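ingest -> validate -> predict -> emit
validate: passed (alphabet ok, no gaps, 414 aa)
predict: started
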Amino acid sequence: MIHIPCKDMFRIIAAVYILALIILAFLGFSDDPNIDTLDHALKYFSKLDVDIARSYFLYGLIPTNTYRIIVIIFLLFLSVKGYYLHFAELLARRFKSRPLQIAVSLTVLFSLLMVLRFPFALFTGFIRKEMFGLMKIDIYTWIFRYLSAGVISILLSVIAITILSVIIYRTKRYYFYIPIVFLILSLTFTIIYPRFITPLFYDTVKLPDNDLKIKIFKLLRKTGVEIDDIYIINKSRYSVSANAYMTGFGPDKKIYIYDSLLHNFNDNEVLSIIAHEVSHFVKEDMLIGLLLASGGIFLILPMLNFISIYFLGRNLKSLVQPENHPALLMLLIITIFISKPIENSISRRIEHRADLYSINRTEDPDTFIEMKKRMAIINRSHLLPHPVYVWFYYTHPRILDRIKIAEEFKELQN
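emit:
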């Protein structure tokens, strides 16, 4: 349990975090104040498109932030009241293995958080999407898929955090080993996800030999990227959202395309999307991103240890023990929250570069613009988000910023 002198400070940290959430949510309600941005949006979208996208965004903003506030209050309650200490003592009597105690504790805690999240996920993930015409399954199928995804997520999270916790608990040089283990676990997950997780939720088939496949492989030869094959994910059975992605290493790379993308976009638009994804592999964005994340962890761990000692009266080695897991998760949530602007700024720069690469490779900025317009309408993308909200939360540039890249390319062509 957290020392009594540290409880008030911990409450202050939680209060500051909640205040930051509320301020950012307020900015989320505010559109971009620049009138030129609205004019730019109306050049490509109707006023109805803008209003629908904004409504869809707001219907997700409120429940998402409400859930975040409830989670931090729940973890704070468990941390300062000492109830979780009794549960940890029960685990210690029931299981002699410390790693098993950690795993069981994390499983229980994550399961509780999944239960807390359910009503909010039901609204944002089913009711909201059904209201805006994005959902194609009934509520019972959605609940089954939500629970299945939750169980898999808990299992993978528990395994990863237990491994990292044992390293912290048993070694003094954990700050050196953890970034390496994190990198290995992340690379392993990128291999596991498309091969084992995706097929559990979606039917996948190879893209048949057709004109589109020929065009994709022609594009890949120009970029020097080798892939194993191209697969179609049966997404349209569940949702109208459209996307594509590329995963794997070496010649074992694969391209996955949502069938909804094939239904709603022409071949040139699909090529524009594929070229964007290819850029991430040509530039080694995924590997560089993981290396940067690992380096960030190396730098953050000493800071976490200092914060843990100063505010919680426990070092990081003590914090990974079951009795302190609520405090540990709370600290991790707040640390991730603080790091978002830096992480997302890097991500937006990478995505900007990938968009530019796509336009340069296809030499078709008009198709890129049409693709972005259609993608934004189908996915109900907010067209006028506040710049500060974008700076803090967005992993990708705003739709209008991405369209502007193509506009500038056209100007250079002329």
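The first strand starts at residue 204 and ends at 206.
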